[in-house]
Amino acid sequence: MWTQRAQSELRAAAFFAHFAGRCLNEQRPLALQWLAARGASDELRHAQICRTMAGLYAGAEQPWPELEHDTPPALGGVSGALATAVLVTGVCCVNESISTSYLGECLAAAEHPTAKAALRGLLADEVDHARVGFGYLASLDASSLRELAPQVPWIVRTAVRTWVGSLRQWPGPELPAHGLLSRTRIAELVREGLRELVLPGLAHAGLDVGEASTWFEAEGASWL
Fold first, then answer.
1. For 137-154, how does the pLDDT look when each residue is reduced to its tens digit (9 = 90+)?
2. CATH number corresponding to 2-62+82-223
3. What angle do CA 152, 123, 1 make, to 5 degrees?
C-alpha cells in the first residue's frame, strides 16, 4: 500500500510542478500560484513519507519510486489553457477531493502511532490541493467555463476508471489499525465523494454536471 502511494505522490509532484508554471504564465491569482508551487514540494515530501513507511513495514529501505513521465499526459484534441483546465479539474477537484475523504477515513481508523502520523501529514496538505482545483475554476471567465463544461463527463469517467484500476491492485488484507481499508470501503468512499463533494462542487463552480451525474448513477457507480 505504501509503495503504491509513494508512486502516486511522485506523479502528483510532477503534475504540480507543471501546473505551477501554467499558473505563472497565465497570471492566475498570486495565492493560486503559491499553492500550486507549494503543491510540488508537498507531493515530493509525501512520496518520501510513503517510501519511509513502506521501508518500515518491509523491514528494509525501499528504492525511490520511478517516474514514468515528467509532464502531464497529452489529451486528444485538447491543448493549451483548456488542457490545463481539464487536468486541474481531474487531478485536484476530483481526485484530491476524494483522497481527502479517503485519507480522513484511514486516519480515523488507524491506531498505530507511526501510521497515524504519516496519514495526518498526507491529509493536512491534501485539503489544500483540492482547493487549488476549485480556486483555479474560480479564476476562469465564463467563456473558459463553457469550453470546459463538455469535458466534465470524460473527467468523471476517467477518475472512476483510475480508482477502479487502483482497487484492482490494492492489497487484500483489511488492516484498519494501520490505515489499510478494505476494497469495499474504499469503493464506498469514492462513490460518496463523487456524489456529495465533487459533483456538487463542480456545479457550484459553474459547470454543467448533468450528463456526468446521469452517467455515474446509471453506470459509473456500479464499476466500483
1. 999 999 999 999 999 999
2. 1.20.1260.10
3. 85
